[in-house]
């Protein structure tokens, strides 16, 4: 779980005036901006301009600098779970995500998260 400041919330996926997911722009404690997809949706408009604690995940990760969410840190494995972390963020990753991306475990580096998603509040 990490604490973020909700900067903006906008529809991301909608059909026939029904919103199925939101794009949420968050600020980390350092001031770094990240974009998160709210797939549930939790409708975070209530938390606009407030700090909340969230749990993040990602389906796509690489070692490129060509995306919005480039973060420096390390990927670790604990039992069957994988996660990316640094001093300000924690992102949960599935084994399938690690296997398909072919990223290094237990080595510091810059990682590109093409899409972060909100797992829970």
Describe the protein:
Helices cover 6% and strands 60% of the residues. It has one domain. The protein is mostly beta strands and 121 residues long. Strands 1, 2, 3, 4, 5, 6, 7 and 8 form an 8-stranded mixed sheet that branches.
Properties at a glance:
1 helix; 121 residues; 8-stranded mixed beta sheet; 8 strands; 6% helix; mainly beta
Summarize this, please?
The chain has 121 residues and is mostly beta strands. The protein has one helix spanning 95-101, and strands spanning 2-15, 18-27, 33-38, 51-62, 69-78, 81-85, 90-93, 109-120. The protein is globular, with a radius of gyration of 14 Å.
Order of helices and strands: EEEEEEEHE
Helix-strand makeup class: mainly beta
User: Helical percent range?
Assistant: under 10%
Poorly predicted parts: none
Q: What is the number of helical segments per DSSP (H or I, 4+ residues)?
A: 1
Question: Which range does the strand content fall in?
Answer: over 45%
Mean pLDDT: 90
Q: How far is it from the N-terminal to the C-terminal residue, by CA?
A: 8 Å
Q: Write down the Rg.
A: 14 Å
Number of domains: 1
Major beta sheet summary: 8 strands, mixed
The strand count comes to: 8
What would you call the shape?
globular
